[in-house]
Amino acid sequence: MAVIFQKTKALTDVKLHYCPGCAHGIVHRLVAEVLVEMDEDKNAIAAVPVGCAVFANKYFNFDAIQCAHGRAPATATGIKRVHPDKLVITYQGDGDLASIGTAEIVHAAARGEKISTVFINNGIYGMTGGQMAPTTLPGMKATTAKAGRDPKINGNPIRISEMLATLDGPAYIERVSVSTPAQVTQAKKAIKKAFEIQKQGLGFTFVEVVSTCPTNWGLTPVKAMEFVREKMIPYYPLGVYKDITAGEGK
Amino acid sequence: MAKVLMKGNEAVGKAAIEAGCRYFFGYPITPQSEVPEYLSSELPKVGGVFVQAESEVAAINMVYGAAGAGARVLTSSSSPGIALKQEGIGYISNAGLPAVIINMMRGGPGLGTIQPGQADYNMAVKGGANGDYHDIVLAPASVQEAVDMVMEAFDLADFYGTPVLILADGLIGQMMEPVEFNYVCKKELPPKTWALTGKGDGEKHMVENLVIEAAECEAWNKRNFEKYAKIEANEQAWEDYLMDDAEYAFVSYGTSSRIVRTAIGYLREAGFKVGMIRPKTLWPFPVKAFDKWDKNIKKYMDVEMSMGQMVQDVAYACNDKNKIEFYGRTGGIVPAVDEIVEFGKKVMGGDK
After folding, report:
1. What structural domains and CATH numbers belong to chain A?
2. Residues of chain A with pLDDT under 70
3. What are the structural domain ranges in chain B?
4. Does residue A211 contact residue A245 with C-beta atoms inside 8 Å?
5. Residue of A63, A96, A199 best to disrupt the B interface, most CBs of B under 10 A
6. Contact B198/A63, CB-based, under 8 Å?
7. What architecture is domain B4-198+207-234?
8. Measured between CB atoms, which of A42, A44, A82 is closest to B23?
9. What is the distance between the alpha carbons of residues B263 and B92, in angstroms, rounded to a whole number?
10. Burial class of residue A110 in the structure, from the number of CB atoms within 10 Å of its CB (0-12 exposed, 13-18 middle, 19+ buried)
């Protein structure tokens, strides 16, 4: 019998602990599928974060290291400098990357470190239970901003892709989402392009994925995907923010 | 190799290269900035990599990655910078990865001063990060010993799977002494089959730090402590200086031990039977030295450039807190020989 679909071999059989409707499962699969399509799962080394994806090393069927909170880009730098021929990936959430780890991501990008970062932006701290993230939208409720984020009190969200695109080090930056099948297809293309540019040694590559957290948003999985399209994407517009292979960035 | 005159900070950089280290990640701070300056020009000549990190925090996490990738890797800093690195040192220790970390201590706490100090003893020896762990801590008293210890540190790190800290101070970093690079490894080092190299056609490698089940986390800790017990049994090192007939013993390490050594000369001339136990490993603390000499010794005289951070370990080692007298200067002050001679005479019963 012909097999028309099967699970990618770059994921293990360990049961995912993610909540229903969480985007991590989709993005894990995209990363794994791209590595297999590129025949790079044998060469890949992932630096995984503190946050909901802390166990990604158990799900990825390739080498991985569990990093200190926010430090994955630094740890990945150490790995890449030792093994410049390997495909080195960081996989990070918004608390990890856009709050406690801003220095590490900005400087890895500025150095043009030849690593690829997959950034999951769902505007909330998931693992610790729904606290305000640097990317929480104005008005969005969190356990540390119970009436909703008030920029006068809680400060403003950070648009990381736009910020990193001002630097000379990155070769490719794109913001994608996975709230529709078409977006999933585009997200996979972006991840593949990021990894290919790393293999070509052209510089730092970054894919931001506007994602969900149904549990801490207090929404059903379907409503959470709608929230991404109606509220998150207008604040975090999808698109290519930098691509040196296209001649010039957007 | 013939002796060459080198500044301590440059000599430890060269020692790392001689030991096969090809990766350095660090951040500038006085009084150790010549270490990154030297390695920024010397490592590329041997195919190595120097990265000036954006912070001490990033530097130690780069070390974590490079160590996980199987490389011999070095970072260096001075006291406030080492304080910043503690989180990463804890992660590297927990993961059981080899790395070498040099601390050219200055006076503290906080921003403190840029003059030499020894007040990071507790941070290094008692553990400055969270959780139950130890790192091997080596304390050189000369530029030559710093060279030998840096080279040995890479072997100890690889042999046991642990960070090794070199606890020196700004004086050793800044002064010039003749050195040679003759250290030879005496240990058979295990292959790094666990290293992150890509899985190739084999099993994937994982460097893990989160052990979420409490029973597994406890078992993980106990495995680490089996390793620490071996280190305590095998790696205690110290120098006995004029101990054979000594009735009184100074206990001092690093720069302060150099001044004590001179003071002992004057005290011997004055008729005092006094020597020195000089710890070369601060963890494991050389308890065996005290087992060896304790029956002869009336008083231990602990001299440090701190407010007495080593005293508790001396008390534990000799099992008698009343047998210890302490003299220290801190905040960047290096004690003078006269002060130590006076302290010694006071403890040993005045002029003879």
Report:
1. 24-246 (3.40.50.970)
2. 247-250
3. 4-198+207-234, 239-348
4. no
5. A63
6. yes
7. 3-Layer(aba) Sandwich (3.40)
8. A82
9. 40
10. middle
Q: Residue B163 phi/psi, 5° resolution?
A: -65, 145
- Tell me if B104 sits within 8 A of B31, measured CB to CB: yes
Distance from CA of A43 to the nearest CA of B (A): 4
pTM exceeds 0.80: yes
Q: What is the pLDDT of residues A24-52, one digit of tens each?
A: 999 999 999 999 999 999 999 999 999 99
Question: Which site among A65, A107, A115 would you substitute to test the B interface, given the most B Cβ atoms closer than 10 Å to its Cβ?
Answer: A65
Q: Would you state the pLDDT for residue A250?
A: 44
Which secondary structure element, helix H or strand E, spans residue A75, and what is its range?
A: helix A72-82
DSSP secondary structure string for all residues of A96-155:
IIIIITHHHHHHHHHTT-S-EEEEEE-SB-TTTTSPBPTTPPTT--BTTBTT---HHHH-
Q: In what order do the strands lie in the sheet with B163-169?
A: B49-52, B23-26, B73-77, B99-105, B163-169, B136-138, B281-283
Cβ distance B65 to A83 less than 8 Å, yes or no, reads no
Judge: B65–A41 Cβ closer than 8 Å, yes or no.
Answer: no
State the DSSP H helix or E strand holding residue B165, giving kind and residue range, or none if neither: strand B163-169
Considering only CA atoms, which of A229, A158, A172 is closest in space to residue A205?
A172
Tens of pLDDT along B156-199? 999 999 999 999 999 999 999 999 999 999 999 999 999 999 99
Q: How far apart are CA B2 and CA B182, in angstroms?
A: 10
Contacts (Cβ under 8 Å, ≥6 apart) of B204: A60, A61, A62, A63, A64
Between the CA of residue B335 and those of A3, A66, B125, B305, B329, what are the distances in Å?
79, 45, 23, 7, 6
Give the distance, in angstroms, between the CA of residue A132 and the centroid of all CA atoms in the same chain: 18
Helix (H, G, I), strand (E, B) or coil at A186: helix
> What is the C-alpha to C-alpha distance for residues A81 and A75, in angstroms, rounded to an integer?
10
Query: B-chain residues within 8 Å CB-CB of A199?
Result: none
Enumerate the residues of chain B whose CB falls inside 8 A of the CB of residue A81: 23, 49, 51, 62, 66
CB A134 within 8 A of CB A121: no
CATH architecture of B239-348: 3-Layer(aba) Sandwich (3.40)
The first and second tokens of residue B327, run together, are 């003299």
State how far Cα B275 lies from the chain centre.
23
Three-class SS state of B326? strand
- How many other CB atoms are found less than 10 A from the CB of residue B200? 10
d(CA B235, CA B233): 6
Residue A203 one-letter amino acid: G
